[in-house]
Amino acid sequence: MLLLGAASFSLTGCTKDDQTGDDSTTTNADGDDDVGDEEEEEEGEEDDGITFIPEDDFAAASECDPFLQDCMEGEKCVPYGSTGGNWDANKCVVVEGDGQPGDECTWAGIVEATDSCGADSVCWDVADVEGQLIGVCTEFCTGTPDDPQCPPDTSCLIANSGSINLCIQSCDPLLQDCEGEGLACFWAGSDFQCIFTTQDIATGEVCGFINDCSQGNLCANAENVPNCAGSACCAEFCALSDPQCTTDGVECVEFFEENTAPPGLEDVGLCIIPGA
What we know:
mainly beta; 3-stranded antiparallel β-sheet; 0% helix
C-alpha cells in the first residue's frame, strides 16, 4: 500500500468550527507520540490506527470499554474529554434519547458527553447551530479492536487510544461521494473515510494534516510534490484509467501497491513526482 504524507488529522473534541489544526490536538496516524513531527512513512508500512492527541496527554482512566459497552443497563460507554479539550477516555452516561444511526442529534459537549442518540450510537460530526450542538448519530464499532465490525459501506475508526471507535462512512476519493456538508474523502490509515475538512488548502500548497487539504487532495510528503515549500504539500487524486494531473512535473501514480487495492478502488492514483 502506498502511504504518503503527514498521515494525521486535525481534530479536537469540540465542534467543526473549533477544529483549527492546533498541534496540541493531533498526532501521527502511525501512533507516534511526537505531535509536531510529520515523519515520512515508508512505502508498505502498516498503520496501527489513528490517534488525534499524543498518548502522553491521556490523563484520565476510562471507566468502561466502548467495544464491550459494559455500562449498567440504561447507560452507554462514550468518549469524553476529562479536561474539556479533547477526547481522552471513556465513561458511562445515561442514554437520554432514541436517535438511530444517521439521525440528527444534539450533544451536551465533550465533558458531559450526553446526547440524544440511542444506546448503540453517539453524536458525531457536531457543529454549533445557533448555540446548539447538532450532529449525526454514528454507530459504535462492534467486535474487538483487532477485528472491528461495522455495517456495509462503513469502516471502523479507532482513535485516541481506543476512546473513539465509530463506524464512519467509507468513500471513493475519485468520486468524493461523502454525504454531509463539510465532509471530504480522506485516507484514514486503513481505509478512505468521510472526514470533515479544516483548512481547504489547494493542490501544491503546504499542509500539516490530511484533512487540511481541499476536497480531492491528500497531504503528501514534500519529496513527492514539486516545489513544496514545507514538509508536506497537497497532492490531488487521479484516475489511473484517465491519468490527468493539473500540476507540472507529476504523474498519476498508483495509490495502492500492485494487487492490493480494495474492491472498487483499483483505479485510485495520486499525482506525484514519479519515482520519488
